[in-house]
Design brief:
single chain; alpha+beta; Aminopeptidase; 7-stranded mixed beta sheet; 11 helices; 15 strands
Length: 376
């Protein structure tokens, strides 16, 4: 009996007028010389959403990952790249062990070749090569396909702290004079609420809170995989954090850490995305965090969330966003004054060997952050 991949291979090969072997050979890892053509494809698919420095971004994301010459796959037809699928190789801790996994990023297909199953075929091809594949997020075009090829775990929750009310009120009141009139009262209410939440929050006396303008200066966090933030997570080494947040072009990230006798016990990484124009919102995001202590975990993490929020407020943030799914992070966020907004986009998991009883298929077992998607 043919597998799903083999069946789709026959259908797609017939559609593209290729034999099966030629179809499989057309899907390859990209080289640096392919970057301009990949960027041009992204422009055809995403139009104005692609930034001017897209080629620089592609070099960082898919060609500067330590230990890998390339992590983006392309499909080539008649010497032209008509589709691409970016990946991020990660180490995944679950069920008492660490194993390699692949995180799929953007799957893009030239509009001329849409609706032929090429995106699904590329996804199945990578599932054929890897035991474990993850996807964070989706859109109207991809969610239906992902639900068929993966186990969906809609687990991520979005939280927010409002620091200045004018943009929040702009969504409620369309008349500027009304916003100007009532915004001081809302600002006072938000500030009072946060002061009440923050007044009793402090690190345990034996810990030292340190702000890092350069994440590269963070001490190595010796992560106990069992840890306290959920049972399934992507392992975050210092080398990974440097690539993810220091080397990324066009962005600046900061960190706040809790140190115990010079050793890093917990950290929070955050950044600010400045809106364009005088009336644009300045949005802060807590993008990643970890704690290596089960003692006072919620208190320590809440203190770091507060410290990061205060620093972003000084840097001009109008609001701070946080996406999470594990219980300890959620308790810490609420304790720090964050308010639940909504459920975020779905998360999808594939594993070729594990049964449904594995923790990897349990929504409550995962730790995730903004950093587990390609939105940061």
């Amino acid at each position: 009996m043919l597998s799903q991949f083999d069946r789709l291979t026959k259908i797609l090969a017939r559609s593209l007028e290729l034999d099966n072997d030629k179809l499989v050979a057309s899907f390859r890892l990209a080289g640096v010389n392919d970057i301009p053509e990949i960027s041009a494809l992204r422009c055809r698919v995403f139009s104005s959403l692609v930034k001017e420095d897209d080629e620089r971004y592609l070099r960082w994301r898919y060609f500067h990952r330590p230990g890998f010459s390339s992590t983006i796959w392309v499909f080539e037809l008649s010497h032209q790249i008509i589709a691409a699928l970016g990946t991020e190789p990660v180490e995944l801790w679950h069920d008492g062990d660490i194993e390699p996994a692949l995180r799929n990023m953007d799957a893009i297909v030239d509009p001329e070749y849409n609706r032929r199953g090429l995106g699904a075929w590329m996804t199945l091809a990578l599932q054929n090569q890897n035991n474990c594949v993850l996807v964070t997020g989706g859109n109207e075009n991809s969610t239906s396909m992902l639900n068929k090829l993966f186990t969906a775990l809609p687990v991520r929750k979005s939280f927010k702290i409002i620091l200045h009310s004018k943009f929040y009120l702009g969504q409620k009141f369309h008349y500027p004079f009304v916003r100007r009139l009532i915004s001081p009262f809302f600002d006072f209410a938000f500030k009072s609420y946060l002061n009440i939440k923050w007044v009793s929050k402090a690190l345990p006396k034996n810990l030292l809170l340190v702000l890092f303008n350069d994440i590269g200066e963070l001490p190595e966090l010796i992560v106990d995989p069992v840890g306290c933030l959920a049972e399934v997570k992507v392992v975050r080494s210092k080398a990974y954090l440097k690539w993810r947040y220091v080397d990324k072009p066009g962005s600046q990230f900061w960190a706040v850490g809790a140190l115990d006798e010079g050793k890093l016990l917990a950290y929070v990484i955050y950044n600010i995305e400045n809106g364009r124009g005088l009336e644009s919102m300045c949005e802060g995001k807590i993008v990643d965090w970890y704690i290596n202590s089960k003692t006072n975990a919620t208190q320590i993490l809440a203190s770091l969330f507060i410290a990061a929020t205060k620093d972003m407020k000084k840097r001009g943030a109008d609001e701070v966003l946080l996406v999470l799914n594990d219980n300890i992070s959620e308790q810490a966020a609420i304790s720090a004054g964050f308010v639940f907004r909504n459920l975020q986009s779905d998360f999808f998991v594939y594993h070729s060997k594990l049964s449904d009883s594995s923790h990897i298929f349990s929504p409550d077992a995962w730790y995730q952050s903004f950093g587990d998607s390609d939105s940061i």
